[in-house]
Amino acid sequence: GAPLFVLLLAGIAPALVGLGAANHAAADQTQQTVDLGSKKLELVTTGDSRTQAKIDGAVVEEDAFIQVEASFSDGNSGAAVLLVSDGGNGCPGNYVVVSVDTQAKVAATDPFGTCSDTAETKAADGAITVRFPPTGGQDGLTYRWSFQKGLEEPVTEPFEPKAGTSWATAADLIGKYPWEALDNADVYAAFQNLLGADFRTFT
């Protein structure tokens, strides 16, 4: 008779080959498709676990991670804002707008943002907005893109502590992130007073 390991291998080999074929088939798999005017934007996972954003088979953006955050399409033109990340901890994400105009021309912006992957995104009335709300004593930024103007310079939104907060509501900060303490008006004022000119460096 054949040695036991040969029999085991003969029984396992077809299963292993089947697994390999299944993994290979899933290697270049479409995750999501979004209409952009007369074309379709496809997010595809590659064999080396990267994500590509493709239109008509051409790669318009590639990164470790890509996700469609918001999009619009009126049948003739459209655009989508993508969250893109290289997978590192230093910069969780930035954003890219991919568009298809009425002449079916495909375009993509350079990545933009603050390295935060928690922006509020909106696509409406032929425009895309990406808002990074003020937080932790730091001002926020809002980016706006449209076919008419492209990606505009960001507009600053000044940080302000939450209205109605004071020492009386400071106990609500227990269990919150340290930077959320600055959302409290009295705590914010105390830090400004205590740190003086160093307050900007602190935030």
SSE string, helix = H, strand = E? HEEEEEEEEEEEEEHH
Distance between the termini: 76 Å
Global shape = elongated
Q: Radius of gyration, Cα only, in angstroms? A: 24 Å
The oligomerization state is single chain
Main sheet, how many strands, which sense, barrel? 5 strands, antiparallel
How many β strands by DSSP?
13
Number of helices: 3
Category from helices, strands and their pairing:
alpha+beta
Helix content: 10-25%
Poorly predicted tracts of residues:
4-26
Mean pLDDT: 86
Residue share in β-strands: 35-45%
Descriptive overview:
The chain has 203 residues and is of the alpha+beta class. Helix content is 19%, strand content 37%. The chain is built from 3 helices and 13 strands, in the order αβββββββββββββαα. It has helices spanning 4-27, 185-195, 199-202, and strands at 29-36, 39-45, 51-55, 58-63, 65-73, 78-85, 94-100, 106-108, 120-124, 127-132, 140-146, 150-151, 155-157. Strands 9, 10, 11, 12 and 13 form a 5-stranded antiparallel beta sheet that branches. A 4-stranded antiparallel beta sheet has the order 1-2-3-4. The longest helix is centred in the first third of the chain and has 24 residues, at 4-27. It is elongated and about 60 Å long. The N and C termini lie far apart (76 Å). Mean pLDDT is 86; it is low at 4-26.
Question: Care to give the gist of this entry?
Answer:
The protein is built from three helices and 13 strands. With 203 residues, it is α+β, with helices and mostly antiparallel strands.
